[in-house]
Amino acid sequence: MKGFIVTAIIAAVLLFPIFIQSYVFWDSETKKAGFAVYFAGIVRILSGYAQLYTGGIVFHLSEKKAVILPYAELLNARKKFEITRGFVVCSYKQIIEVGGAQYASAALTIGLLLRKITDLVFYGLQKKKDIKLCGEVITDMNRKGVRATIRAVIAFNLLILFIAAVKILLERLLAYGRKRKKQEGR
Questions:
Q1: Could you tell me the end-to-end alpha-carbon distance of the chain, in angstroms, rounded to an integer?
Q2: 10 Å Cβ neighbour count for 109?
């Protein structure tokens, strides 16, 4: 009986969904993007801001800590991590603010185009999955530039993270084995 209870607890921990909430804020006037990631919408895991530089993106996590992500590595990231079926987007909300202080007609046109693009993308996503989507486009004739706010909630479980970690470990071991075999063959 005791073994069954322990097994049930381990299974529940591995299969129980974990909800991660992320926020991204971007402002074209400051040329910065802020971000925050929360566990269950309460506990902040990570936050900071990002800036572009000539070779990639710099993520400032604190006053003394920054991480540089080169563009080349960003392009290869999709190839390295393919286990995405276990990650489910539960909700997505975006608010795009288009400033029209300089060119009101251009702001209205861009706002209308963004609204239509958002509607089309959301229509396609809702056909595939049960996801809560919300998109707003606001034109503000008193300000310049563009601002965007995005909030997404993603659900997954520890089993998926464990599988992803094992996959990455096995790929690295295979690469190490191939490299070693190649060196021995010389």
A1: 58
A2: 14
Q: Confidence class of residue 38 from pLDDT cuts 50, 70 and 90?
A: very high
CA distance 170 to 82: 14
Q: Where are the domains of the chain?
A: 19-155
Long-range contacts of 64-72 (CB under 8 A, 24+ apart): none
pTM value is: 0.67
- Residue 165, exposed/middle/buried by CB under 10 A (0-12, 13-18, 19+)? exposed
Contacts with 96 (C-beta within 8 Å, 6 or more apart), sequence order: 111, 114, 118, 135, 136, 137, 138, 146, 147, 148, 149
DSSP string, the chain: -HHHHHHHHHHHHHHS-EEEEEEEEEETTTTEEEEEEEETTTEEEEEEEEEEETTEEEEE-SSS-EEEEEHHHHHHHHHH----TT-EEEEEEEEEEEE-SS-HHHHHHHHHHHHHHHHHHHHHHHHHS--EEEEEEEEETTS-SEEEEEEEEEEE-HHHHHHHHHHHHHHHHHHHHHHHHHHHT-
